[in-house]
Design a protein that fits this description.
The protein is built from 27 helices and 2 strands. By secondary structure, the chain is mainly alpha-helical. The chain has a domain of about 160 residues: Alpha Horseshoe (Serine Threonine Protein Phosphatase 5, Tetratricopeptide repeat). A two-stranded antiparallel ribbon has the order 1-2. The longest helix has 25 residues. It is globular, with a radius of gyration of 29 Å. It comes from Adineta steineri. InterPro entries: ARM-like, ARM-type_fold, PBS_lyase_HEAT, TPR-like_helical_dom_sf, TPR_rpt. Belongs to the APC3/CDC27 family. This is Cell division cycle protein 27 homolog.
């Protein structure tokens, strides 16, 4: 059974999803008398769930549980291996049921995409369906809690808190509160106090909720949501003074990220935050935050990057952080570096990774290389590139040379030709962009013989021809390479936008670079004028 399932898994992982599902269903039919056929049902559930067929997946997993129980003669007769299988499948069922209850029957998750379809149920039928899903989730959570082995205490706590959330959502507040209070006593996480307070609030036990919120604020004065609920509490009591103060604190603490340790709640910082959130944000960075080199100022800059302020504001914040990091040493340098590393690891946007990686590369931050090496093959999204090759070139670590060359010579295959999935459409063209960027990044290592060889070979490959000519031209200053780029332009073809950006960054190195840029600009203007005439 294991060998057959493994072969079918290979088919599924190759992208031939429909064939794999058909094969696993055939295996189930042919192995109905096999005591391990539950493994095939479990596998079928996983496939169907990944394909967004959640109801069918649930049915397969329920069949797997039933077969497990029937074969053993009941849960109490499970051996250790059977118990682990039963627990894992039950937890998956609980989580899927809970998610379906939250999202409704018209939502499905296919690989990395969320799909929406109109529900075929009436509003009342939909609500009843959600209620049944929540009840089923609670059932499966409860049935495994007492069966989790004693040595897996962390797993048991995690499942109990998931159960509490399912109880809360389904309106079983008293049971949920009991679990949240136990969880707080176990690990002291103030989140459990907030959830317990929320349960009391939902039950209209407002005074009890307020008491719990005060306990929470004493435990963690930065817990933003506690201030928001307190503001609502005082608003309902018509105490506008208290409501306004709690609202002010909520707005402050909900903006300041948890990784900040030097931004305290005081009048100066509140006013500074108000300026950052206004149309004077860029001016604030260029003056107040640039002139103030304290850790508080550095954390404000990192917070701006964390919240992904688009365009000039975010770019300036990263620029100041990079300059500050380059100029610093010792503990101060490590402080700035750790903030930027945190932005990469806990990012809210790919743009944040791009900015933080570039800033750390400018700092020549040693710990960055391993992060970039891991991110390089993932940098395939053509709409939201991370520009990892640029960061590797900027970092200047010679360990990047084989990584960049491998990416050029062995391009990442974004989609299997036999795949029946259309989920990778955002990656279309991403591989080509990445290869060109890798060629341009090699300019930082142009003194390496292998790099020269790769670039010279690259001029014979259409996809990277321009990029290789550009790097060779800038790095060697040999006329023949400039002539090749000029020929591309005189033939009426503008240069690739990435090549143009590379030349612009090196415009001070040669008059020939400036001439190429002028030729390209003139050609762009000519084409635009022609397009305007054709439009008229």
């Amino acid at each position: 059974m294991e060998t057959k399932i493994q072969k079918i898994n290979e088919i599924f992982q190759s992208g031939r999803h429909k064939q794999a599902i058909t094969d696993i269903q055939t295996l189930i039919e042919e192995s109905s008398a096999d005591n391990e056929v539950f493994k095939a049902y479990n596998c079928l559930g996983q496939y169907l769930n990944l394909m967004g067929q959640h109801n069918e997946a649930v049915e397969a997993w329920i069949n797997a549980l039933k077969l497990l129980e029937d074969n053993a003669g009941g849960v109490e007769k499970f051996n250790e291996g059977q118990l682990v299988e039963w627990i894992n499948i039950s937890i998956v069922l609980a989580r899927i049921m809970y998610r379906q209850g939250r999202e409704g029957s018209g939502v499905s998750h296919k690989f990395n995409s969320v799909c929406y379809t109109a529900s075929k149920m009436s509003e009342s039928e939909e609500e009843e369906w959600k209620k049944e899903r929540f009840q089923a989730a609670v059932k499966y959570y409860k049935q495994v809690i007492d069966k989790i082995p004693q040595g897996a205490s962390e797993t048991k706590i995690k499942i109990r808190t998931e159960l509490a959330q399912a109880l809360f959502t389904s309106g079983n507040f008293d049971e949920a509160v009991q679990i949240y209070e136990e969880a707080f006593n176990n690990d002291g996480d103030p989140t459990w106090l907030y959830k317990a307070a929320d349960c009391s609030w939902q039950q209209e036990k407002k005074e009890q909720a307020y008491t719990r919120l005060q306990q929470l604020i004493t435990t963690d004065p930065t817990f933003a949501d506690a201030y928001q609920l307190c503001a609502t509490y005082f608003t309902e009591k018509n105490d506008t003074t208290q409501a306004d103060e709690y609202t002010r604190r909520y707005k402050f603490y909900s903006w300041v990220p948890k990784f900040c340790r030097h931004i305290e709640y005081n009048e100066d910082n509140v006013l500074l935050l108000e300026t950052i959130q206004s149309d004077k944000a860029l001016e604030c960075i260029e003056t107040t935050l640039t002139e103030d080199t304290s850790k508080r100022s550095t954390e404000f800059l990192a917070s701006i990057c964390y919240h992904h302020y688009h365009g000039a504001v975010e770019n300036k914040a990263f620029q100041v952080l990079e300059q500050r990091g380059i100029a610093s040493e010792g503990d101060e340098r490590e402080f700035i570096g750790s903030l930027l590393m945190h932005l990469i690891k806990k990012h809210q946007s790919i743009c944040t990774i791009k900015g933080a990686a570039s800033a750390l590369a400018g700092m020549k931050y040693d710990e960055l290389f391993d992060i970039l090496a891991n991110l390089l093959p993932q940098d395939l999204n053509i709409c939201f590139p991370m520009h990892i090759p640029n960061a590797l070139g900027k970092l200047g670590d010679r360990r990047a040379i084989p990584l960049l060359i491998k990416m050029i010579e062995e391009p990442t295959d974004t989609q299997n030709d036999n795949s029946d999935s259309s989920d990778d459409f955002l990656l279309s063209g991403g591989s080509s962009r990445l290869i060109v960027e890798c060629c341009l990044a090699l300019s930082s290592f142009s003194d390496d013989e292998k790099v020269k060889e790769v670039l010279l070979n690259g001029i014979n490959k259409e996809e990277i021809r321009e990029a290789c000519f550009a790097v060779l031209a800038v790095c060697t200053e040999e006329k023949k390479y400039f002539d090749e780029l000029e020929k591309i332009l005189t033939d009426g073809n503008t240069l690739d936008y990435m090549v143009i950006e590379y030349l612009q960054n090196n415009v001070n190195k040669s008059q020939q670079v400036e001439n190429l840029l002028k030729l390209n600009e003139a050609l762009l203007i000519k084409k635009q004028q022609k397009d305007n005439v054709d439009t008229d």
